[in-house]
Design a protein that fits this description.
5 helices, mainly alpha
Length: 150
Amino acid sequence: MKIKSQKDFVSGLALIAVGVAFAIGATNYNFGTSIRPGPGYFPFGLGIILAILGAVVLFEAFTTKRKDGDPIGRIPWRPLICIVGAIAFFGYFLPKLGFMISFPAMIVITSAGGSEFRWKDAILNAVVLTALSYAIFIYGLQLTIPVWPA
């Protein structure tokens, strides 16, 4: 079989790999039942769905004709580093700095990955998203997330 779309081929493989990894990782947790699902129930289901979606995309890579083979372009390093770095920053600093400092910082770091980055827009976005996230997760769902530095 000939690969007709390089992007679909690589994307399909990546989705399958991540989906299978989540499904395997979820087997370390209790599944529970359909009525009372355990902590492994949801990630296992999502992993399977993601792997199936990856298989569909991978199938498309072999069947759908794309212009010029739909080659993979250059890797956008700046957005990739900013987004992954922002998530790692948030995960590491949430217990230390609290939600009200680490969440808006994550939003600003993520915004820096865009080609049209402006400080004013990033800070406004961070303030609005922090307020909405606080209202939903801390006030509405009453999650026990550290709000301020300890």
